[in-house]
Amino acid sequence: MSYIESTRVVQGWRSSRTLILGTACLALFTETLLYGFVVPILPYMLEVRLNQDSSQTQRTTSGLLSVHGFATLILTPLIAAAADKTPNRKVPLTIALVVTLIGTILVALTPTLWAIYLGRILQGISGSAAWIICLAMLTDNAGEGRVGRVMGLSMSIVLSGTVGGPSLAGVLLQWAGYWPAWAVPIAIILINILFRLITDEPPKASTSQQPPSRESLSPDEQGSSVRDVENSEETPLLSDSAIPRETACQDEHTTTDAPVSFYYEMLSDCRVLASISSTTIYSIIIAGFNTTLPVHLREIFNWGSFTVGMMFLILRIPAIILGPLMGWVRDHIGLRYPTTLGWALLSPLMLCLGLPSGPEHHGKALFITCLACIGIASTLVQGAGVLHTITILKDVENRRPKIFGPQGGLSRVFAINEVSFNAGLMLGPLLSGILSEEIGYYNMSVTLSLICLANAIFVWNFFERGLAHSEK
């Protein structure tokens, strides 16, 4: 093989879809791994390395975990606006990974408590940037009719990091020691940076290159699957015939090329509000479990930390296994029906979860069964909000080219999702903690059950009814 041919092969591999998607998924896995990795190590860091009194450990741990989400909540819209103005994502993602590395090393060194806080803030900011950029990479490079499956697979990888982070850290700290434990995430970040430097992603296309679809659709095509909507940025995703005009809060605008406020335009659409509702409530429920399950299970079943950990695995393993399958389902039948079904199923399951008050009358079996079913039902709603918002974005950009600028608004869509999810992470512990203490775990479960039912109705009314096919 000649030098020129070898160069072409290498260049083709560097710009291959598989490598680009793999790099994005690896970065997402790393960020979620880092979020929980520090949890089992924090007591050692605070009490041994900083000689802090053990009575302050719980309060300091809560502060270090919450500051990560707070930094993300505040800076995400700014990061997304900058990302949408950048035609090439290689440099921003590389910078984000380098900042993640700096923050991780700062946390691991543990020179002072404020240095740990600064490290967590850097991790939060860089993690938010990586999330926005990587999700945009996945959407752009998934290919026609495969966004649901790619997103489902990526969410399974993300959950693997969420579940595996604390477990890996605890095992490594106990068996190998402090610095060998931190060597693993630092090595993973370095591998991320290497892959990002190797990958040669084509610059994203301007939205002005996306001609609006003028094809009229048959009724069958108007009811086709979400795979026909979630195409690459170079093609329009929805034709005018598939737009449910009655679901938009704002009046119909005339086509214009003048850029307008992204957040005003999107947040005045009831379909986007339904997407935000789905994302936020899902996050509230997940965060609420993290807050209330350990105490509740200790009180009613006298279960220790190991058994409680197994309950969290039961809750999250279904999403890891079924994520790609749910993505395939969404690609073939759309978002509205599975998402509505998911919320409708979660309503009675949340109610039943609060029924066991002790080990008698098969209370343990009922609780475990309900928890497993909640894990399965949650796969129907997980990620639906962001996918639906992408659909709406493509609809708006198809009808009104360059409305959000020449590079479009995809990164800002992921910012909406990121802010919604992090708002849920902050509200979930507060809401569930107050409700369980003031009115009891059962009444808290009833409240969450009613919220799930109301959201099922909201989703049914405002999620897209039919997703149209668009010609290449």
Automatic annotation (TrEMBL):
GO CC, any one term: membrane
Signal peptide coordinates: none
SUPFAM superfamilies: MFS general substrate transporter
Alphabetic keyword roster: Membrane, Transmembrane, Transmembrane helix, Transport
Membrane topology: Multi-pass membrane protein
Disordered, as annotated region: 204-252
Predominant subcellular localization, coarse grouping: membrane
InterPro entries membership: MFS, MFS_dom, MFS_trans_sf, MFS_Vesicular_Transporter, Tet-R_TetA/multi-R_MdtG-like
Biased amino acid composition, Polar residues: 205-225
Xref: Pfam families: MFS_1 (PF07690)
Superkingdom of source: Eukaryota
Protein name: Major facilitator superfamily (MFS) profile domain-containing protein
